[in-house]
Amino acid sequence: MGALEPVRNIDFVRTLSRMSGRSELVKKNMARGNKALCIVHSLKEKYELPQEQLARYSGELAEIEAANEQCRSCTGMDCSHKPEWKRLMVQADCTGGQFSLRVCPCRLQQEKLRQQRLEKLMDTAHIPVNYRQDTWTNFTLMPGNKRGLLLATMAAKENISLYLHGDCGTGKTKMASILANERLKKGLSVLFVSVTELFRTLQDSFDKSGNKQKDKILPLIKKTNCLILDDMGTTQRTEWKVAILQEIIDYRYANVLQTIVTSNYSLPELKDHLIIRDRSGKVQEDKQASRITSRLEEMCQVAKLDTPSFRHKREDILS
């Protein structure tokens, strides 16, 4: 077999090379064109836009689709969007056959913000530390608390006020705290107030700075979405204390605000306790007591918790 002869016409070789290059370029352009047509066809199925608008904004729409795909697989550790879209969800608004870009916080960012709001609400709610993480699964259903638990679970979902009464240790505070936790999860402002601590705080502020602190504290208590008044009736009654209670209850009654009251007393017993008497026991003032209990009776569902004391059970276990 003879040796290959060298190609003598170098121009012919260059022509073939140029033709080959053009052929590859044509193929690439055709591929790009086919891909663009596929994208436009795909976008046409999803977005109600005229053909002209689809062709004009196909690049932007394809970029939005890619960003949404990134969102679906995102774990929240690192956002892959371009800088101006970081921590955002992007959507195409095609209302009226016109394209516009709509952005909102990403789902993970929204959950993070929701959790931050919940933590802030929890910090200001003053729910007893022992009960802050409790849910209804932490509460034991017994025949003596069945009605109370039913009403409390309803009040956790709706704007229902409750008056929970019963002996010490029957779970009134725990039940009210769990209800408060559930209301917090719905984004409502909640305030858990020990009536004894309330009067002590107001009295201290009055002694130190006149009514200034009182004027700051009472509006917060009166206006919060859900107010828990724990252990009403455990403090020594005075005209000033009864007047404070009436101011709070009247405001919440008038504005249909959810109020949860716990007490060792039934409503008739609470009324008797709040009546102002002199040293001999003679009634000096009973209108405020009547007004408070009348308001509570009208605004609240009433339930008695009649169960063995949880505190006594705990003491028996430890002994």
TrEMBL record:
Q: Name one GO molecular function term.
A: ATP binding
Instruction: Provide the AAA+ ATPase domain boundaries.
Output: 158-290
GO biological process entries: DNA replication
According to the lineage, what is the superkingdom? Bacteria
The family database entries (Pfam families) matched by this protein are listed as: IstB_IS21 (PF01695)
Stated name of the protein: AAA family ATPase
> What is the species listed in this Swiss-Prot or TrEMBL entry?
Selenomonas ruminis
